[in-house]
Specification:
alpha+beta; single chain; 7 strands; binds nickel (II) ion; 26% strand; 5-stranded antiparallel sheet
Amino acid sequence: MALLPILSYPDPRLHTVAKPITEIGEHHLVLIRDMFETMYESKGIGLAATQVNHHERLVVMDVSEDASKPLVLINPKIVSMSAERIRGEEGCLSVPGIYDGVERAREIQVSFLNEKGEAKTLDAEDMLSVCIQHELDHLEGKVFIEYLSALKRNRIKTKLLKAQKDAARS
Ligand code: NI
């Protein structure tokens, strides 16, 4: 097991569009284990492979309070979305310390493969739905702050660049 470095905004690699996984290999299972370890260690509830600079369509998630509901989504696709929207406060391990409201579909149905390669369908609502939509955006090279105004986004960018510079100096 290993902790993986997480890319931080505005790293341009976060805008890579991930490729579908055609065959689940041993290296994917190792990556999944490492992604879970990295996500739990960072107190996150979701991590897309994109964020650890691996550009295949793979997401790990756990929205439970006690790390009891690990979920692996390989090649996930949103099949349907409710017209009803909710606005939740989102954060992201690639945008440390920043939280802001984003509007998303309240309910979705998502199809995916699990780590055994079995086809699954999941109906998700509220927090789980929001988390899945957030992580699937990562696979498209999109970070949640891109839903915010240009003004806010630029402010966040400046703040994060300064924090990265300060961290490099110390
Ligand atoms: Ni994120």
